[in-house]
Amino acid sequence: MKERIMILGAGVMQGPAIRIAGEMGLFTVVIDGDPDAPCKDLADRFECIDLKDKEGIEALGGILMAEGGLSGIMTAGTDFSASVAWAAEKLGLPGIPYEAALNASDKERMRDCFKKAGLPSPEFAVFSTPPLPDTALPAPYPLVVKPVDNMGGRGCRRVDSFAELSPAVAGALKFSRSGRAIVEGFIEGPEFSVDAIVYHGEITICGLADRHIFFPPYFIEMGHTMPSNFPAEQQKLLLDTFCAAVRALGIAGENSVGAAKGDIKLTPNGPMIGEVAARLSGGYMSGWTYPYASGVEPTQAMIQACTGRKPTGLVPGRSWTSAERAFISIPGVVASLQGVQAAREAPYVKDLFLRAAPGSPVTFPENNVSKCGNIITQAPNRQAAAEAAETAARSILIRLQAPNPETEAFLDGARHLFQNGARHLDAFQIFPALRSALDRLPGSYTAKGAPDDVDQINQNLAIIPFPEFSASDLRDYMGRTVEESLAAVRQITALPLPVVSPEEKTSDTKTIYLGRNFWSALIRGGYQAAVYMIDMMQK
């Protein structure tokens, strides 16, 4: 009988663990609460169990041991390292202490551990209800609000005043399984992700990545690049602080076997710990970008460790760069996608993960699980890897169904608010002089003899020039220039859409001129909003 391993999670992030364990000759027993989890078919045996149900997982482990043995249990990229630690402890399998896993799963316990160890970590306070105006706060504004027990940036945002604080705490509480939100001081500085394997007190670093965070007041990771581009002495400070945090949580005890993933910032005063989890990372780092950049498979090392073997193969065999970049959408429902296959086949592209499809509801990201997809590249140098990922991400164009109330609300001049009071940023951040120039343009369209039917509308649309904007060096939140955004509109609609002033028109052809409202839509929601406006004209 094959040696067996239990893996928690059958999502995309657990795909590498299931695949690699199988390649190592192990029989994979995979658990997920979703009966349709995307990687369930990779497993030798699949069981539908809620990953919060640690007793149920323990019971299955006991059955497996009685049936012929179970060598180890693990997870990667999930919230449920505590379930792994509980089952491993109860079943006598390699792992970390359950209490250490709780320290790494509960941000209140985590901050307490860091404080007791004297590690650089923000001051904090925990709330089970939104604070009142006279409530003592842990630090001056700006502050960061997040659930005590969730991942992926769900319910996490920056606040700059009490008016923002109360709805932000209420929003975070909705994402907390224990009904608690943590409020802590904002950490200024660039952010990094770290992965590590822990084996009997020894911590082996498996990559330090530069994270690319956007869209305040949220903290949306639009990608990461591996390895870090920061100086070696700064990287050492970051990694030393991370290792001290892993030990402070109890993850790296003398008999501990497992993994650790950290988010850490480099402030003007040195490194400061964001968070540490007792697992390998999600976000495509441990399973994709680090192996592509280094030739090392942290997932394989983790499988070795949790099945009682000393991890091997942790010495990098190459020095390439791997970049991960996300692509996103404004709110609505997907009508169609263009450019997917071309992006897959673009130079240096290794993987394309698509979360959106025709009919899918989409929203502008307010956390790290609400993006439309991700591109991962591998290249000999940083510039090539980053440019390839960003170009491929921009080449995927998402058209939205029209009409749609969510899209309308987003484009409404009153601004679409999230449930916790924050609002979306415009696609193009224009300055006051450009806003004044925009206000002087004619309205959404003017006509020289109204076209008689939709076909004429399609063939005789023109855009009133806005040279102050179109000739600027502004870029949207995906890095598209104005001209590239207009090219995307033309590609999706298959219309020529010349930029022509009504005064320059010499023929008698009936023409509709798109003016201020078209440019306003493009500024507000990029190429998607401009296409949506044109689609609505045909309704």
Brief digest:
The chain has helices spanning 15-23, 54-67, 81-91, 98-105, 107-116, 162-173, 232-248, 285-294, 298-306, 340-344, 382-395, 405-411, 432-439, 454-459, 467-470, 482-493, 516-537, and strands spanning 4-8, 27-32, 45-48, 72-75, 124-127, 143-147, 157-159, 181-185, 191-199, 202-214, 220-226, 257-267, 270-277, 321-327, 332-338, 349-354, 361-362, 373-379, 397-400, 445-448, 461-463, 511-514.
Written overview of the protein:
This protein has 539 residues and is α+β, with helices and mostly antiparallel strands. The protein folds into 5 domains: 90 residues, Rossmann fold (3-Layer(aba) Sandwich), CATH 3.40.50; 63 residues, Dna Ligase, domain 1, CATH 3.30.1490.20; 132 residues, ATP-grasp fold, B domain (D-amino Acid Aminotransferase, Chain A, domain 1), CATH 3.30.470.20; 87 residues, Aldehyde Oxidoreductase, domain 3 (Alpha-Beta Complex), CATH 3.90.1170.50; 112 residues, no CATH class. The protein is 33% helix and 24% strand. It has 17 helices and 22 strands. It has an 8-stranded antiparallel β-sheet, with helices on both faces. β10 and β11 form a beta hairpin. α2 crosses α3, α3 packs antiparallel against α4 and α4 packs across α5. The longest helix has 22 residues. The radius of gyration is 26 Å and the shape is globular. About 2% of the residues have low confidence.
